[in-house]
Amino acid sequence: MDITSLYNANINNITTAKNAFDALAKAFGQHVEAWKHEVADRLSASHWTGPTSNVAQGRVADLGGELQAARQELSFVSKALANAAEQFALAQSHLISALDDAKNAKLNVAPDGRITWDNEPSSPNFAGAGAETTAVAVSGRITAALNEAAHADQEISTRLNHLASNASNGTGLNAATVAQDQAAETARENIPVAGTDPNSVKQWWNGLTEAQQQKFIEAHPDRIGNLDGIPAVARDRANRITLQQAKQDLQSQLDHLGPEPPAKIAGASGAVSNPAHDEWERRKALLQEQLNGANAIDKRLTTKADERNPPSYLLGFDTRGNGHAIVAVNNPDTADNVSTYVPGTGARLGGIEGDIIRSDRMVASATEANKKAGDPRTTSSITWVGYDAPQSIVPDATKDTYARNASNSLHSFETGLRATHEGTPSNNTILAHSYGTTTVGYALRDKGLPVDNVVLVASPGAGVEHARDLGVDPSHVFVAKGDIDKIDMAPALSADKLVSNGVNNLGSWYGVVQDPNHHLIHGRDPMIPDFGARVIPTDPGTGHSDYWNPHSKSLQVMGEIIAGRK
Question: pLDDT grade, residue 409 (50/70/90)?
Fold first, then answer.
């Protein structure tokens, strides 16, 4: 495919062919119906019997099936031509847009794609100091448009050649062949359901043309944006649509919430709290919080990308319950190192801004670690608020149900990262904080996660007795707890572990060797030496939320781990 051919392509010719096949299929269908009524039905209603009748009626029945199969095959040709028109039109529009922008920038594009420009400042055709940068960008767009058209040409040619072969060799009259062709058409048009294996999702997505992919993004952004196995760029495009729709919807709900009900109403023994007012306040607070979270995400997504603010991608978004969001700093499909950060108690859409800041800092820390080592590898850090986290320490965070319920979603997401990554497999880290470590521990223990490193920060227990029980090389399991972080005061609830912990605490107070079986509420304390993890150093005065403080030792080491330098 070349620039001239695509630019001058008359897409209307394909549409004309499609319309002709529509007319042919309609006429053929009318003939099939007439034949069925005039021949098959009349023969079936006749009183003709005997061996010859049996043979004739059997052949008529077979012929009816063949005619129906041919009718369906004709419809597949029409569908293929319709897809071809859409795909070539989209590729052509991309090419024309790139060429128009080149012209506006005073760049000259040759038929072979070479771009030249006038470098003389005094010339009326001077392209400006940024001409080279613009030329590189335009050249990339032209190449993408040509590749898009070539891909469409190959895909449509394959479909039409297959259908032509079916027609010429007679297999298109076979019901089994038609069923296979119908299944292929259905697969192109149906989005895999949530929970489908991400590798299968990726295979389905790769089988679509760019026009088909764009159609799904525009028609079903909520489903495409939250489907593991869809590449990050496509998920981001879909979720940005959903984000804007959600912002409008949340604001509309706030605007139509109605007047505030009275706080008190008359009761049998005097004024009492008004349940309607309590519900109104709860609803308003939730809507406003979710809108704040959506605005924070939008602000990060639209921040101009530079060295201090890498590009970000929205890999998941919805407002169900307390809301969920998955935000990546840098593209995880192309990064050499990929980290997924799972926050703990209180994680929700409304509070995601602080978690995204932590991802930004981890990317900066990992980049600095590689820079010091002269390593050009890149890093992506993902904030994963893709589960319903506990919203209170007591009673929510004392339960392991939140962690259990998140295992499938986390496993699917991490599997999807592997499925969509381009080139050499990335060095993947799962990093969690507080109750998030319980969530990660349960997923590692029960489902297994395709990760290379595990980092548990301020953990109340990860559901296992030893680092090796997480399914990852213990030398790649890291733990951290600050000197004034009281997370290790989260007591185990079983009687035997309470006694053991009491002995341990007494021993610690009097300088006795620490009991290696010390348990917290969700498992053995990962900081105990017998747990078998590597300890991340922290600064003096590190509390429960201080691990990501700028220039802190813990942030530095987390960056080194994510960068693959530990």
Answer: very high
